[in-house]
Amino acid sequence: MKDVAPSRNTHDRTGTPSIDSVSLAIIEQLQEDGRRPYAAIGKAVGLSEAAVRQRVQKLLDQGVMQIVAVTDPLTVGFRRQAMVGINVEGDLDPVADALTGMEEVEYVVMTAGSFDLLIEIVCEDDDHLLEMINKRIRTLPGVRSTESFVYLKLRKQTYTWGTR
After folding, report:
1. How far apart are CA 104 and CA 148, in angstroms?
2. CA–CA distance, 23 with 56 (Å, rounded to integer)
3. 3-state class of 136 per DSSP?
4. pLDDT digits 0-9 by tens, 72-120
5. 90 in the Ramachandran plot: left (φ > 0), alpha (ψ -120 to 50) or beta?
6. Which ranges of the chain would DSSP assign to H, the alpha helix?
7. From the centroid of its chain, how far is CA 9?
8. Would you say 61 and 54 are in contact if contact means Cβ atoms under 8 Å apart?
9. 40-83 tens-digit pLDDT
10. CA-CA distance, 107 to 37, in Å (whole number)?
């Protein structure tokens, strides 16, 4: 096994970290199993356990990745999920910031197209969803309209983007 510098990752001209092929291979290993031992990852990518540990820490510190437990909302008491399209008058940032601060909102993205913002919300039930949309989202200053897409069944959800 070769022991190399903690990471050869650099930043491109926009300040975004540029990830080398070894770091991408480490990320792929962790996407398959976030609890995979560093020694096993090292064997797969040709580095020592210590070098893998250093690279993983640098990737975490740079915000390139996170290692988290992913739950199925249904099994932990949240029976309603929805994607909500939001149209905003004026500046999107204050509305996006307010949504980001809501515990039930899992995903916030600014978009081009039919909606200015798309959010994903996870709620306990339909009453909770109604309260979120009617009392908390639609009442935010700048929110012009919303359209909700209630999830009936989740068929696929992956976390492997960017490496394959």
Report:
1. 15
2. 8
3. helix
4. 777 777 789 999 999 999 999 999 999 999 999 999 999 999 999 999 9
5. left
6. 21-32, 38-45, 49-61, 92-100, 126-131
7. 21
8. no
9. 999 999 999 999 999 999 999 999 998 887 777 777 777 899 99
10. 30
Counting beta carbons within 10 angstroms of the beta carbon of residue 28, is it exposed (0 to 12), middle (13 to 18) or buried (19 or more)? Answer: middle
Tokens of 55: 């690279």
- 52 CB neighbour count, 10 Å cutoff: 27
Please tell me the predicted confidence (pLDDT) of residue 162.
64
90's tokens? 């004026």
- Partners of residue 85 on adjacent β-strands: 118, 147
Contact assessment for residue 28 and residue 163, using Cβ atoms and an 8 Å cutoff: yes
**Coil, strand or helix at 121:** strand
Q: Tell me the two tokens of residue 105.
A: 């909102």
pTM for the model: 0.71
Q: Is there a contact between 62 and 12 (Cβ–Cβ < 8 Å)? A: no
Q: State how far the Cα of 6 lies from the Cα of 47, in Å rounded to an integer.
A: 10
Residue 22 near residue 47, CB atoms below 8 Å: yes
Burial class (CB in 10 A: 0-12, 13-18, 19+), 18: exposed
Both tokens assigned to 113: 């197209």
